């Protein structure tokens, strides 16, 4: 199927954006602390409607008490909730973490599956979380459409007025080289926090993309 002129233009723009952000943020990475795949699953669930910094503090206490998948799977939901409630939505997050760890323990021998569809079957795991695991843990193609990604790709002009995370993800798959997707999304987070901000006016004057951005603010 022949590419449209618009798709070709967006691909060219995407490559330029990727190159500039790579130069600006060469060491972008996930800001959730973890040393095992299952711990990233836990942290991602806790990070919903919560920033990463408090999550990194809360999980330390969680893993002191429940240091393995099996231990967390065996824990009572109220025990988990008592520890994770500073992250907000304590009961629903504790319930999902408990169910997710039980499934990992019973079905996957305490291992996190490296298959996107199997990840989506885990309680509390959506497309954003599954993509993060695929990219950061397994080094596979991934596009994590968090709030920064959605906001910036619309502002820059890589997507056109799309706000639904899955639709943004699908649109980006068409123009972002698969091997660049995961790191690109991490760099969007850094850029969104430092320059192309949401709660204040964006700092367009010091943006490395200012001459190529559509500036849909």
Description:
This protein is mostly helical. The chain has helices at residues 5-24, 37-46, 52-65, 69-74, 77-84, 90-107, 116-120, 127-137, 147-156, 165-173, 181-194. It has 2 domains: 5-29 and 143-206, Orthogonal Bundle (Endonuclease Iii, domain 2), CATH 1.10.1670; 37-137, Hypothetical protein, domain 2 (Endonuclease III, domain 1, Orthogonal Bundle), CATH 1.10.340. The longest helix is centred in the N-terminal third of the chain and has 20 residues, at 5-24.
Summarize the structure.
The protein is mostly helical and 217 residues long. The chain contains eleven helices and no strands.
Defining traits:
single chain, 217 residues, mainly alpha, 2 domains
Supply Rg: 19 Å
Termini separation: 33 Å
Helix content: 55-70%
* N-to-C series of helices and strands: HHHHHHHHHHH
Structural class, by secondary structure, is mainly alpha
pLDDT under 50 segments (min length 5)? none
Number of domains: 2
Task: Provide the CATH topology of the largest domain.
Answer: Endonuclease III, domain 1
Strand element count? 0
Shape: globular
The name of the CATH architecture of the largest domain is: Orthogonal Bundle
Text of the CATH class of the largest domain: Mainly Alpha
CATH homologous superfamily title of the largest domain: Hypothetical protein, domain 2
Number of helices: 11
Main beta-sheet annotation: none
Residue fraction in strands: under 5%
Summarize model confidence as the mean pLDDT: 97
């Amino acid at each position: 199927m022949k590419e449209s002129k618009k798709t070709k233009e967006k691909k060219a723009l995407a490559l330029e954006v990727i190159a500039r952000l790579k130069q600006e943020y060469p060491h972008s990475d996930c800001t959730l602390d973890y040393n095992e795949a299952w711990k990233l699953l836990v942290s991602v669930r806790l990070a919903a409607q919560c920033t990463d910094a408090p999550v990194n503090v809360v999980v330390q206490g969680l893993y002191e008490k429940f240091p393995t998948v099996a231990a967390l799977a065996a824990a009572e939901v109220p025990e988990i909730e008592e520890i994770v409630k500073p992250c907000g939505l304590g009961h629903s997050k504790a319930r999902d973490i408990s169910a997710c760890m039980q499934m990992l323990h019973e079905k996957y021998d305490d291992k996190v599956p490296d298959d996107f569809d199997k990840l989506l079957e885990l309680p509390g795991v959506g497309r954003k979380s599954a993509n993060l695991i695929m990219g950061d843990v397994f080094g596979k193609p991934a596009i994590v459409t968090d709030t920064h990604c959605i906001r910036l790709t619309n502002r820059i002009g890589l997507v056109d007025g799309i706000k639904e995370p899955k639709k943004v993800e699908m649109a980006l798959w068409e123009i972002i080289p698969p091997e660049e997707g995961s790191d690109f999304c991490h760099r969007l987070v850094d850029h969104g926090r430092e320059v192309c901000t949401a709660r204040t006016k964006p700092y367009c004057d010091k943006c490395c993309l200012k001459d190529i951005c559509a500036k849909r603010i």
